[in-house]
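Ticket #4471: structure output looks truncated?

Reporter: J.K.
Steps to reproduce: submitted the chain below (461 residues) through the standard prediction queue, then opened the result file.
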Amino acid sequence: MSHILFVALTLLAPAPAARSATAPARPATAPTRPASPVVVVSGGDLHVGDGTVVKNATVVVRDGKFAGVGGPELAASAPADALRIDAAGKVVTPGLVACDNQLGLVEIDLEGSTHDDARAGDHPVRAAYDASRAFHAESSLIQVQAIGGVTTAAVAPAGGLLSGQVAWVDLVHGDHRGALAKAGVALDGNLGHSFGGSRAAALAKLHEVLSDAQVFRGRKDAYERAQTRPFAAHALDLQALQPTLAGQIPLTLSADRASDILAALDLAKEYKLRLVIVGGSEAWKVAPELAAAKVPVIVQPSRNLPSSFDTLGARLDNAALLAAAGVPVVIAWLDDSHNLRNITQEAGIAVANGLPWATALRAITLEPALAYGQGATHGSVAVGKVANLVVWSGDPLELSSRPTDVLVRGRAIPMVSRQTLLRDRYRSLDKFGGGKSTKSTDARPRPDTGAAATTAAPPQK
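Returned output as attached by the reporter:
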């Protein structure tokens, strides 16, 4: 156990400036490409995100937005100083969107000092907690996800009955002011045994809080004069609930059991809420009701085995059954923030179990943007939208494919992360006692030399 702990701490510790007196220090990141007002991506098969496919497409990016989408003629009309990316023989998609995660809020799961994902205390209502104010743009996890094709994240707080407000961020590593696209795009919460030891108690508390928030909206002056009865939550939390009650932002509610999902639908109908179900292991059982209410469901297809009595009905074809019933399906990685890039694998699992390929791609691009009310700016390749784009070596839902170029807000990011730097540092070490090189066989260029190995390796997991 001590050996395992030592290795883990070694990998997580900050890199020393130099390994020896003669070894030069590696840069923290690879040199970025020179900034260009115009970027042209041409020659690939463009999957717009809404099901449309453009063969031999050209995408023009100007000032961080998509300025043109069409055929080869667009490339010819671009200015001479444009940054040109050759996507011939490759697949081009919108940047992927990762939902309901703590990216930038939690760095190391087992180290409490790196956690900023929840408000302290036992009170179950934390609606005023704003994840955008705790988001750390220098998290080493951001670049890990970005070079895997994830360009946007819906960052949600954790804990409690109502956890707080969701932040919509573009993965611009190190840009503390610029990474946030929009704060408060949703209110996150939990059903099940999230309060009072019983789902009945949790539902009763939700009803009480929402009712009090309605009263608070019309009697703020009386509240400030202490002329109202005690409310179920602090004034800041009641105020933070107002956009949700007004239908301006959705309530993203984690629920797996079919009965909990039905209870959430009843709650949304009573208070006229925009609802999004997160988890939804048994959502397929109530697919007609979800479709009738036009409620999106965020699922993780690989969660096909029961992890609790709430998920006894989990199955691999959940996403396919929901989509067939007309339910908007979003695919996410809900386990941790270190592997959000695995949403392509999750989408591939859904395709293998009956979900149409185009629907699966939409479930990790446009559909999440629509669910969080950000479809006007994110999720597909269209003129005027934020230029988040990924060029893939092949089918993005295949494990053998990887991103070759990623644009975040119109800028080509360096395809380097802490993980690739660690790989490159130790790629030339000899095996213990064997004297043979363990040089990596990854075909991607090294950030310091541009040299590539001769044999391609499977992509990182």
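Triage note (M.O.): checked the attachment and the full token line is present. Residues 428-461 form one domain.
Status: closed, working as intended.
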